[in-house]
Amino acid sequence: MNDKFLKPYNPQETEGAIYKKWEESGLFNPDECIAQGYTQPDAEPFSIVLPPPNVTGTLHIGHASMLVIEDIMVRFERMRGKRTLWVPGTDHAAIATQSKVEGIIYKEEKKRRHDLGREELLKRVNAFAAESHDTIVNQVRKMGASVDWSREAFTLDAKREKAVNTAFKQMYEDGIIYRGNRIINWDPKGQTTISDDEIVYVEEKGKFYYFKYGPFIIGTARPETKFGDKYVVMHPDDKRYADYTHGQKIELEWINGPISATVIKDESIDMAFGTGVMTITPAHSVVDFDIAQRHKLDSEQIIDKVGKLLPIAGEFAGQKITDARSKIVDKLREKGLIASKEELVKLGVDAEGEADYVHNISTAERTGGVIEPQIMNQWFIDVNKKFILKESKINGVASGSEVSLKELMIAAVEGGQTHILPDRFEKVYFSWINNLRDWCISRQIWYGHRIPVWYKKDAEGNETETYCGFKAPAGSDWVQDEDTLDTWFSSGLWTFSTLGWPDKEEFAKHRMYHPTSVLETGYDIIFFWVARMVLMSTYFLGEVPFKTVYLHGLVRDAQGRKMSKSLGNIIDPLTVSEKYGTDAVRLSLIIGTGPGNDLKMSEDKIRGYKNFANKIWNATRFVLTSVEGANLTTKPALTATDEAYVKELDEVIADVTKEMENFHFYLAGEKLYHYFWHTFADKIIEETKGRIGGGKPSETPVEIDPVSKLSAQWTIYHILTTVIKALHPFMPFVTEEIWSAMPGVGSEEKGGKLLMVEKWPKV
RNA sequence: GCGGGAUUAGCUCAGUUGGUAGAGCAGCUCAUUUACACUGAGAAGGUCGGGGGUUCAAGUCCCUCAUCCCGCACCA
After folding, report:
1. Of A313, A376, A598, A744, whose CA is between 20 and 30 Å from A643?
2. Confidence check on the interface: ipTM exceeds 0.90, yes or no
3. What are the E-state strand segments in A79-230?
4. Which of chain A's residues 261-320 bind strand B, using a 7 Å CB cutoff?
5. A:344-363 Cβ neighbours of strand B under 7 Å
6. What is d(CA A487, CA A59) in angstroms, rounded to the nearest whole number?
7. Of A193, A96, A52, A703, whose CA–CA distance to A448 is shortest?
8. Which nucleotides in chain B lie closer than 7 A to a protein CB?
9. Strand partners for A208
């Protein structure tokens, strides 16, 4: 027996060497598994793309949980003989990374992006990204993830740039990508547009004001947008305003003097809200913009890109909207334009002219800036436009049929080719698609894929020609679009841009891995990412991007709170891995969580699994000592008791295999844990002690029956080797280490073969 | 407003088609030169959130209420 079993299991001494051994074997690469004869060339493929972590810093416990779940699936399928590919990578995360670096630069040098210029800022961001990348890949190694490093990708590397440009150009030519003046979410802090999904709603207490607007009383929470309001809108069925007709002009006194207002009747108005009358500001409200579009009304910008009032605000021009608000109300009060309680009661509204009001304001996810809707010339993906899908493998969508992106996204899941776990998220997914608007993909930041479009401009700066392509056309006067693409545009291509697309030869080599088998990610990015990948894959390949979506939850602290710096409850995966061993961390991250549920983590939990790793270690020591000298090359005749043990083991393995196949990794892990500790170690090993060693020294020696002894030796060795294999996906380090120390006996003759490519136990 | 989830032992959670309530941790009692104290054995602990219904039988199915959590939509 190997001397190292004389000491307790020491993960710190073991893990680095084990990972190195795996990596040097090349067996994380399925091609190498085939070359070395561990995988049949015609084996069923199993593929996962790693959700690429943002290069914004370091990995947190949530990333660790993702790595563990995926590694369990991948190791399980690899051991089952599948042609298993797990592609790693990182995400440039455009806004997130740039704003992080801008923050650092501002803190250290008090400089903003325009002080540095595009080139210098990109240099700094790239340097930061490179450093983050190195940290991240080391952390991925530390967690034991068996990813194929030879295929590592980055959302902003040359190959992905080619994919992004190819994708953009094709969508542009199909008219799916268009440029237009539409209302978008402007982040005044980040100085960029963001998509609807990048908005976070924050509850805010404010005032709701009732102003006299000619013969009407209008309600608003945003007096500062009201300067340009010249349309007054009400429901056509509202009896209170039956005397007014659509299109009627009314002269009235407003903030900065007399204006002419037009009455608009529109069914979108909620009669029960406020007075049932509102004025609209199409330039700064999505809802108002829609009304204006329906009735072909004009609009005027009131607020500029930094949140200051424009000249239309008259005396208030140049003021920040937050400062101007109360002053505007003061002015309206002086002019007697704030509605009285009596006037409101007449309209059936029980309120004051100024009422307390709680509403949600939109803020930018990354910068926290308060979103100001603006009408701007931006690039969009049209989700409703019909196009011909030439080749389709999607259920319910025939090749050559006319479809929209929305319809494709629905068909992927409705047709059952993509299944979301847990099921309830399919409903969430559908409701998102039903509310989906065109996706604004242009960003006014510098870090990211630059839009592959060039313009020719005349002397006044008006664009006279547009060209979409990888390089500017011949001629010197072409200027590239200043904007970059939403980071999710490039990550939407991830399932196939990592497999060689659009390079025909390269993609053909990997074609078998797409659709990928499983996408494992957090439920918080189902819209950002999962839906966008479905969009891109169905559009470009006519097939779904993945068969199963496994959504994991958030990792929370022992009390169920989110982990945050301010609460000081962060568990750093590297720290606890060093302290308790990665295997212990892995088990604590998988047991007690199913798809879609949050996981509560604590150091106590990790400590418990550290003990388990050592328990396995000690049990191995005992088994190896007990079988020393025994010839186990052939299965001996087993006693009835041992037959029963083997039968029970087979049942456990069958059950665990079933749980693994059903994505119930938490149950599989728990059952193995329980079986190993409380059945194998506590009962079976204890029972066989007497038969193998003749009883404890303190007890009366029992006569040893050689037949029963050999049967017991074979049985405990068989159970140990079997359970070690089954535990490998969960605890790869300690099991691989034990495996390397097992003598090559019986059917386990292995000649230095790694446990990671052993066959999963068959029943 | 729309939708979803949770509520089971002190704590964290299992409980798959309805068939006598389970595990881990903590606590309690006992054991002890033992493969392993990073241990073992044992006992205790639950009217399964409340109420109603279906059924021979409900933690599980239906209705209802309560509390907590989450997502989406937002109203000017």
Report:
1. A744
2. yes
3. 83-87, 89-90, 153-154, 177-187, 192-194, 199-213, 216-220
4. 269-271, 273-274, 276, 278-281, 285-288
5. 357, 359-360
6. 19
7. A96
8. 3-5, 11-15, 23-25, 33-36, 38-41, 71-76
9. A355
Give the position of tokens 């073991």.
A14
DSSP E strands in A214-318: the ranges are: 216-220, 231-234, 249-254, 257-265, 277-279
Record the tokens describing residue A31, joined without a space: 């091609």
Q: Which helix (H) or strand (E) is A442 found in, with range?
A: strand A442-443
Task: Give, in Å, how far the C1' of B4 lies from the CA of A522.
Answer: 16
- CA–CA separation, A213 and A351 (whole Å): 17
| Exposure of A710 in the CB half-sphere (CA atoms within 13 A) | 13
Is the Cβ atom of A562 within 7 Å of strand B at any atom?
Answer: no
Whole-prediction pTM = 0.94
Residue A90 is encoded by which pair of tokens? Answer: 């990182």
Report which DSSP code applies to A51: -
Straight-line distance from CA A560 to C1' B34, in Å? Answer: 39
The answer to whether strand B lies under 7 Å from the CB of residue A759 is no
Q: How many residues does chain A have?
A: 763
CA–CA distance, A189 with A621 (Å, rounded to integer): 62
Residue A122 (CA) to nucleotide B16 (C1'), in angstroms, measures: 53
C1’ B54 / CA A424, Å: 26
Contacts of A435 (CB under 8 A, 6+ apart): none
Could you write out the DSSP letters of every residue in A546-609?
Answer: EEEEEEE--EE-TTSPBP-TTTT----HHHHHHHH-HHHHHHHHHTT--TT--EE--HHHHHHH
Which residues in chain A show pLDDT less than 70? 1-2, 694-702, 744-751, 763
Residues 516-545 of A, Cβ under 7 A from nucleic strand B:
527
CA distance A481 to A444: 10
Q: CA of A586 and C1' of B12: distance in angstroms?
A: 17
- What's the pLDDT tens digit per position in A317-329? 999 998 899 899 9
Of all nucleotides, the one whose C1′ comes closest to residue A655's CA is: B16
Distance CA A678, CA A420 (A): 35
State the pLDDT at residue A696. 55
